[in-house]
Amino acid sequence: MDDDRVFRALADPNRRRLLDRLCDRNGQTLGQLCESMDMTRQSVTQHLGLLEQANLISTVRRGREKLHFINPVPLYEVYARWIRKFEEGRLGLLHDIKQELERNGN
Asked: What is the model's pTM?
Protein backbone atom coordinates (compact mmCIF):
# COMPACT_ATOMS: atom_id res chain seq x y z
CA MET A 1 0.00 0.00 0.00
CA ASP A 2 1.17 3.50 -0.80
CA ASP A 3 0.06 5.31 2.37
CA ASP A 4 1.01 8.74 1.01
CA ARG A 5 -1.17 8.38 -2.10
CA VAL A 6 -4.11 7.12 -0.08
CA PHE A 7 -3.86 9.91 2.49
CA ARG A 8 -3.42 12.56 -0.23
CA ALA A 9 -6.46 11.21 -2.04
CA LEU A 10 -8.53 11.19 1.14
CA ALA A 11 -7.42 14.71 2.09
CA ASP A 12 -9.76 16.32 -0.44
CA PRO A 13 -13.46 16.60 0.55
CA ASN A 14 -14.60 16.21 -3.07
CA ARG A 15 -12.77 12.90 -3.39
CA ARG A 16 -14.24 11.70 -0.11
CA ARG A 17 -17.66 12.67 -1.42
CA LEU A 18 -17.07 10.64 -4.59
CA LEU A 19 -16.08 7.65 -2.44
CA ASP A 20 -19.25 8.12 -0.38
CA ARG A 21 -21.32 8.14 -3.57
CA LEU A 22 -19.66 4.93 -4.74
CA CYS A 23 -20.15 3.36 -1.35
CA ASP A 24 -23.87 4.17 -1.58
CA ARG A 25 -24.15 2.83 -5.13
CA ASN A 26 -21.14 1.10 -6.61
CA GLY A 27 -20.51 0.90 -10.35
CA GLN A 28 -21.47 4.41 -11.47
CA THR A 29 -20.52 6.14 -14.70
CA LEU A 30 -18.79 9.50 -14.86
CA GLY A 31 -22.09 11.12 -15.81
CA GLN A 32 -23.85 9.62 -12.81
CA LEU A 33 -21.08 10.75 -10.48
CA CYS A 34 -21.16 14.27 -11.92
CA GLU A 35 -24.89 14.67 -11.26
CA SER A 36 -24.60 15.72 -7.63
CA MET A 37 -21.11 17.23 -7.75
CA ASP A 38 -20.86 21.00 -7.96
CA MET A 39 -17.91 20.96 -10.36
CA THR A 40 -17.11 20.47 -14.00
CA ARG A 41 -16.93 17.07 -15.61
CA GLN A 42 -13.20 17.62 -16.14
CA SER A 43 -12.67 18.26 -12.42
CA VAL A 44 -14.58 15.11 -11.47
CA THR A 45 -12.46 13.18 -13.98
CA GLN A 46 -9.27 14.51 -12.38
CA HIS A 47 -10.47 13.57 -8.89
CA LEU A 48 -11.40 10.09 -10.09
CA GLY A 49 -7.94 9.75 -11.64
CA LEU A 50 -6.29 10.51 -8.30
CA LEU A 51 -8.55 8.04 -6.54
CA GLU A 52 -7.63 5.42 -9.12
CA GLN A 53 -3.91 6.14 -8.73
CA ALA A 54 -4.31 5.61 -4.98
CA ASN A 55 -6.08 2.30 -5.77
CA LEU A 56 -9.20 3.52 -3.95
CA ILE A 57 -11.34 2.92 -7.02
CA SER A 58 -11.16 0.67 -10.05
CA THR A 59 -12.86 0.97 -13.40
CA VAL A 60 -14.47 -1.50 -15.77
CA ARG A 61 -15.46 -0.81 -19.34
CA ARG A 62 -18.96 -1.86 -20.32
CA GLY A 63 -19.41 -1.00 -23.97
CA ARG A 64 -18.82 2.72 -24.28
CA GLU A 65 -19.35 3.29 -20.57
CA LYS A 66 -16.69 3.25 -17.92
CA LEU A 67 -18.00 2.10 -14.53
CA HIS A 68 -16.29 3.18 -11.30
CA PHE A 69 -16.14 0.85 -8.30
CA ILE A 70 -14.84 1.51 -4.81
CA ASN A 71 -11.91 -0.63 -3.68
CA PRO A 72 -12.19 -0.99 0.11
CA VAL A 73 -8.83 -2.76 0.55
CA PRO A 74 -6.64 0.37 0.90
CA LEU A 75 -9.16 1.83 3.36
CA TYR A 76 -9.04 -1.35 5.41
CA GLU A 77 -5.24 -1.25 5.32
CA VAL A 78 -5.31 2.34 6.66
CA TYR A 79 -7.66 1.17 9.39
CA ALA A 80 -5.50 -1.86 10.23
CA ARG A 81 -2.25 0.11 10.20
CA TRP A 82 -3.25 3.44 11.72
CA ILE A 83 -6.59 3.19 13.54
CA ARG A 84 -7.07 -0.29 14.95
CA LYS A 85 -3.99 -0.19 17.18
CA PHE A 86 -5.27 2.96 18.92
CA GLU A 87 -8.78 1.57 19.13
CA GLU A 88 -7.60 -1.69 20.74
CA GLY A 89 -5.81 0.12 23.55
CA ARG A 90 -8.82 2.24 24.34
CA LEU A 91 -11.17 -0.75 24.29
CA GLY A 92 -8.80 -2.69 26.53
CA LEU A 93 -8.73 0.21 28.99
CA LEU A 94 -12.54 0.42 29.02
CA HIS A 95 -12.71 -3.34 29.61
CA ASP A 96 -10.29 -3.07 32.54
CA ILE A 97 -12.27 -0.18 34.06
CA LYS A 98 -15.51 -2.15 33.72
CA GLN A 99 -13.97 -5.19 35.44
CA GLU A 100 -12.59 -3.00 38.25
CA LEU A 101 -15.96 -1.39 38.81
CA GLU A 102 -17.67 -4.77 38.85
CA ARG A 103 -15.17 -6.09 41.40
CA ASN A 104 -15.84 -3.10 43.63
CA GLY A 105 -19.61 -3.60 43.41
CA ASN A 106 -20.40 -0.48 41.45
From this structure: 0.78
